[in-house]
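Posted in: Structural Biology > Protein-Ligand Complexes

Title: Requesting predicted complex, adenosine-5'-triphosphate in pocket

I'd be grateful if someone could produce the C-alpha cells for the following input. Sequence and ligand are given below.
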Amino acid sequence: MSVLLDVKDIAKSFKLKGHWYHKRKLNALSPLSFAIEAKKTLAIVGETGSGKSTLAKILVGAETPTTGKIYLNGQLLKNQHFKQRCQHIRMIFQDSGTTLNPSLTIQELLDEPLILNTVLNEKQRKNLIRTTLQKVGLLGDHMNFYPHMFSGGQKQRISLARAIILQPQVIILDEALAALDPSLRSQMINLLLDLQQQMGLAYILISHNLGIVRHFSDDVMIMSQGEVVESGKTIEVMRNPQHKVTQKLMMSQNFQIK
Ligand SMILES: Nc1ncnc2c1ncn2[C@@H]1O[C@H](COP(=O)(O)OP(=O)(O)OP(=O)(O)O)[C@@H](O)[C@H]1O
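-- Reply #1 --
Done. Output follows.
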C-alpha cells in the first residue's frame, strides 16, 4: 500500500500577548512527522493541551503551521489552497450534529458543499444527496426533514454524510464518537469501517477513550506537551506501553491488554 497522507516536520508556535520587547511564544507542537495509507486509521491520544486539536486544525487548513509540509498522494498541500484542502480532508466533531443549521433542510445542508465545490447541476446534486444519505444508513426522503427531527445518533450520521459527499480521502474524527451511547457508538464505528473499505478512506481518530482507539485504529500516536512520546501499531503499544505518559493514560482508564 502506498502512503496517502504524508506529514513532515509539522510544528506550531503561538505568539502570546505581551510587551513588544518581551513577546512570548507557546510551542503547541514540536516538529512531528507521520504517514497514513488509504483504508487505515491513525489514532491520536493525549492529555488535554497536548496539541491534538492544533494538529487537526493544521491538517484541515484552519491553522497555518509554523514549519513543515503536508503531502496528499505525493502532492504538496498549499496553505492558501483552502478549497482544495477542504475537499480532500474533512473533519467531524463531537458536537457536529448539534451545529447543523436548524433553519435548513437536510437537502440544503448537504447541497452547500456541492454548490461551492462542484459543477453538478441541481438534478445531479439531488441524486448525490439521496445516495449519500443512504450510504450513511438514512433514507433518501430524509433530505426534506429539518435537523431537529433527528436523534443525536442520526444527526451524527448527517454530519458524516456532509463529510463524505465530496468524496474526501481523509476524515478527521475529533472526539466524534464521544457523545454517543455505547450501542450507537458501535453502530457508528461499524458504519465508519464499512465506508472506509468502500471509499478507501484514511481516518485520523482523536479520542480520549482507549477502548475506542483499540477497537478502531491500526496505529496510534501518543502526545504530550506538543510532542509525540510514543507511536506504533495500536495493539503493540497497548500491550507493551513504553512511555510513562502512555502507562499513566492506560492506568487512568484501567485499560489492559494481555
Ligand atoms: N489560538 C491559540 N493561541 C494560543 N495558544 C493556543 C491556541 N490554540 C491552542 N493553544 C495552546 O496550544 C496548546 C495545545 O492546545 P490543543 O487545543 O491543540 O490541545 P488538545 O490536545 O487538543 O487539548 P484538548 O484535549 O483539551 O482539546 C495548549 O497549551 C493551548 O493552550
